[in-house]
């Protein structure tokens, strides 16, 4: 006992001395690695922001900072020369409606799966698990053909109907995995609380709205964000379903992709301006609810 | 007409093989404090939850105020319940937690506030009213749970091991707190515990269960002094009753370790019941095991010599453990003024043969039960 | 009159078993169900089934009989629905048969059986949750399940521009769409190439993403590193920005006139930028493949980073303290405690990453648009099985697309199912 007490500090200092340089080299290497990675992340993003404010007639620019700075020029041409504004409203309307619909469905059905015990519960959950495996793109052919067969594309309000159609598809796809996540979160809330409220005189609806909803709020936020970001980021569905429509009917993803691939009137700086504007809402939402997302991910993401 | 009747209540969980509660019968009178006690897993919570309406009753009738309420939902049964986990609503303050039941019953905000204030004063919660449950200590949470039940005046209070998460000292004080509240409210309380001390100290009547079956119903004194079978005898009382198998012949009980004479009353009872020459269980509480000259003279025919295997010092008394064949550890509680015993010491012990219990060795039923009951 | 007889009688004619048992309401219910079934069958199922395979004078088997009159696609969907309805009818019959048998059993045992009213009351707690979740299942059925089934069927037809219904009738092609991939020399070679690249891409992108995310998390969570919050804020940026934007930005960045050529390479080599010597990263197949893997790692690592950071933060300090009392140092701490714990939590991520990248049409398709097709090939260098499915779809070669999608879905489904079964996901009530 005494021996170790005497030995320990001595050994510690010695090993500290020997490792001092090495350990700090480790630290320096770590910082270098972290900073290089940070630059690799930041650089393309900053470059895009810079070119959003750069006005040039040449196809390329060799300087990081704008050679010909203008605060508004690119944005002006974005709104004047392209249908950017309608892409923007299309996209955000689409994702907000999807978000509301799927969140409501997910929150309610998660509650049912967690709190009700009925014969077909297990098969319902199982079918959610199975449907979830099927890649979302696999039904696209049939969806497109269905849409044209029921006359969506030939109708007067083709754009509106297509968007409703897409909203429903996104909603359906957004409810599988998220319902399971949500159910898991409900499960983590002890049923004692429900029973206690029941005895306090609460109806099933009151238990849901007054006891459980406030408690699952963090997960609701996460799911709402996932459902919001899904349609914004998707290019597959709109590319296929609205590719042939007028420029006004496009989503941001399709519109911007067209902007960059259309070599003739490519103006990369205008594209950059559009990209910056498009990125702002999702990035803000993401950072505002960062902790929720991280929490939701580490609570449910690892399991499933 | 009793206030509450439980008739042939049976519970079988859908996925379970055996019944969790079988044929439970009980009538409860106005104002009674009933304690359901038994080892864990014996079906106490299940019974309570059926009464609360949280579990379906498989068969049998639950009668409240003369009406069968098997299919009435919890919220309409007019009951309050304290959960083992407390089940406080994490997102509500103490005030909201306590007042939630009143709010749901559409009490005016004024009344709610007044009643919540009153009950919190009673439970020393006034200064915590605005806190959330997670900012409270275990004891405080328990009091909130209690307050949430007590703020209302239902027909029936239900408590499922409300004290099991508290430390020993808090448990004792809260115990008397609950008894006090019960007297003040006067409503029927059904209290579940696995702790026989709580049952003994709090109950008007105890319902002792084992393996889903009621073993005995009676006042604490009845269960303690006249246990119906070996299970009741050993479950009630601390340390638990000594049981030893031996044979009875002509007024003497003998086992491998000792032979003693039974009292004259017991002799008559045993002889009448036809146990002469048969084997049976002898039960003796540790308090019936004494030592010292005084007792040796009083019970000269029930003394025996043994070696103390272990001694537990309890302050004003000691527990002495010694071996009694076959394979039984006997314990005696010796009070102050009796001999001081050391480990491995040879000691003469006296069985107070007026306080003995006898059980049939086959059925484990008490032989004296019906006779004592008549008395 | 045995229970079995009652069962099979009700299975054939729902309600008749109940009639023999003198249960009026169930009988009526059963007969009306049967009437409804017959109506649906005659009005909907039969007309669709009849047109599902029509032999034309020229010997071809078509869906629908007459151009412009019959929409082959609607017939396909209708037949699928009809088939599912028949399955549903069988389920109804089975429910009736079970119930009739149960009633019979109760009468045999007790002399009486529970009444219809009691039965319905007993079922009410089954009905409510099913009703609440019904809208979701209807959505899923219409927009996920049905399309997936119909898409599979498309793989066996000649649905491909210009054969578009209702102007043309679709024709059954049997397995020939699949056979082409193996028998047609050019197609087979290209398919093989795509398969190899798909595997390479899936594995490399997933592995790089996971390694990068894990290493960054471990380094950034070292106790001695300051500014953790700052690094975390930057590292999750790629996750916060919608992927399609980043992909477009990178497409530009790696083009001949992009930042990589105009700024980064000149910065390191010291040479002036010159369009004629600039590297078109997507114009060369090998460069393109490496670049896309790097970009995917850039896009995907934040998810792993956050996940591993979360794991690291949940490792209690006393684990390390216990280990240093046992004589452990920093290295053994890492290899004996940190790494195993990370691996446990990263293992399932590998599956999600793997399936994600296998299915990742977005990046492959978008960057694929920037590449050039190899001369004489129908494939582009970056095409994977899934992205090819999508590209063929865009080119209105629906039947070929369906073949690829079917292959891709089968592979992914098999992998996921296998891992779930191995992990016991279906047995464990908790997962459910
Ligand atoms: N939901 C349930 N499903 C199946 N069996 C249960 C359920 N709840 C309790 N049981 C079983 O019923 C018996 C009694 O349980 P319980 O009433 O909780 O005992 P306790 O007396 O400890 O409160 C136990 O054997 C337990 O395993
Ligand atoms: Mg219990």
UniProtKB/TrEMBL annotation, chain A:
<keyword id="KW-0472">Membrane</keyword>
<protein>
    <submittedName>
        <fullName>Maltose ABC transporter permease</fullName>
    </submittedName>
</protein>
<keyword id="KW-0812">Transmembrane</keyword>
<dbReference type="InterPro" id="IPR050901">
    <property type="entry name" value="BP-dep_ABC_trans_perm"/>
</dbReference>
<dbReference type="Pfam" id="PF00528">
    <property type="entry name" value="BPD_transp_1"/>
</dbReference>
<dbReference type="InterPro" id="IPR000515">
    <property type="entry name" value="MetI-like"/>
</dbReference>
<feature type="transmembrane region" description="Helical">
    <location>
        <begin position="268"/>
        <end position="287"/>
    </location>
</feature>
<feature type="transmembrane region" description="Helical">
    <location>
        <begin position="160"/>
        <end position="181"/>
    </location>
</feature>
<comment type="similarity">
    <text>Belongs to the binding-protein-dependent transport system permease family. MalFG subfamily.</text>
</comment>
<feature type="domain" description="ABC transmembrane type-1">
    <location>
        <begin position="88"/>
        <end position="289"/>
    </location>
</feature>
<keyword id="KW-1003">Cell membrane</keyword>
<keyword id="KW-1133">Transmembrane helix</keyword>
<feature type="transmembrane region" description="Helical">
    <location>
        <begin position="92"/>
        <end position="113"/>
    </location>
</feature>
<feature type="transmembrane region" description="Helical">
    <location>
        <begin position="125"/>
        <end position="154"/>
    </location>
</feature>
<keyword id="KW-0813">Transport</keyword>
Automatic annotation (TrEMBL), chain B:
<dbReference type="InterPro" id="IPR008995">
    <property type="entry name" value="Mo/tungstate-bd_C_term_dom"/>
</dbReference>
<dbReference type="InterPro" id="IPR003439">
    <property type="entry name" value="ABC_transporter-like_ATP-bd"/>
</dbReference>
<dbReference type="GO" id="GO:0005524">
    <property type="term" value="F:ATP binding"/>
</dbReference>
<keyword id="KW-0813">Transport</keyword>
<dbReference type="InterPro" id="IPR027417">
    <property type="entry name" value="P-loop_NTPase"/>
</dbReference>
<dbReference type="InterPro" id="IPR017871">
    <property type="entry name" value="ABC_transporter-like_CS"/>
</dbReference>
<feature type="domain" description="ABC transporter">
    <location>
        <begin position="4"/>
        <end position="236"/>
    </location>
</feature>
<keyword id="KW-0547">Nucleotide-binding</keyword>
<protein>
    <submittedName>
        <fullName>Maltose ABC transporter ATP-binding protein</fullName>
    </submittedName>
</protein>
<dbReference type="Pfam" id="PF00005">
    <property type="entry name" value="ABC_tran"/>
</dbReference>
<dbReference type="InterPro" id="IPR003593">
    <property type="entry name" value="AAA+_ATPase"/>
</dbReference>
<keyword id="KW-0067">ATP-binding</keyword>
<dbReference type="InterPro" id="IPR012340">
    <property type="entry name" value="NA-bd_OB-fold"/>
</dbReference>
<dbReference type="InterPro" id="IPR047641">
    <property type="entry name" value="ABC_transpr_MalK/UgpC-like"/>
</dbReference>
<dbReference type="InterPro" id="IPR015855">
    <property type="entry name" value="ABC_transpr_MalK-like"/>
</dbReference>
Automatic annotation (TrEMBL), chain C:
<feature type="transmembrane region" description="Helical">
    <location>
        <begin position="233"/>
        <end position="254"/>
    </location>
</feature>
<keyword id="KW-0997">Cell inner membrane</keyword>
<feature type="transmembrane region" description="Helical">
    <location>
        <begin position="290"/>
        <end position="312"/>
    </location>
</feature>
<comment type="function">
    <text>Part of the ABC transporter complex MalEFGK involved in maltose/maltodextrin import. Probably responsible for the translocation of the substrate across the membrane.</text>
</comment>
<dbReference type="InterPro" id="IPR000515">
    <property type="entry name" value="MetI-like"/>
</dbReference>
<comment type="subunit">
    <text>The complex is composed of two ATP-binding proteins (MalK), two transmembrane proteins (MalG and MalF) and a solute-binding protein (MalE).</text>
</comment>
<keyword id="KW-0813">Transport</keyword>
<keyword id="KW-1003">Cell membrane</keyword>
<comment type="similarity">
    <text>Belongs to the binding-protein-dependent transport system permease family. MalFG subfamily.</text>
</comment>
<dbReference type="Pfam" id="PF00528">
    <property type="entry name" value="BPD_transp_1"/>
</dbReference>
<keyword id="KW-0762">Sugar transport</keyword>
<feature type="transmembrane region" description="Helical">
    <location>
        <begin position="73"/>
        <end position="96"/>
    </location>
</feature>
<feature type="transmembrane region" description="Helical">
    <location>
        <begin position="401"/>
        <end position="421"/>
    </location>
</feature>
<feature type="transmembrane region" description="Helical">
    <location>
        <begin position="28"/>
        <end position="46"/>
    </location>
</feature>
<keyword id="KW-1133">Transmembrane helix</keyword>
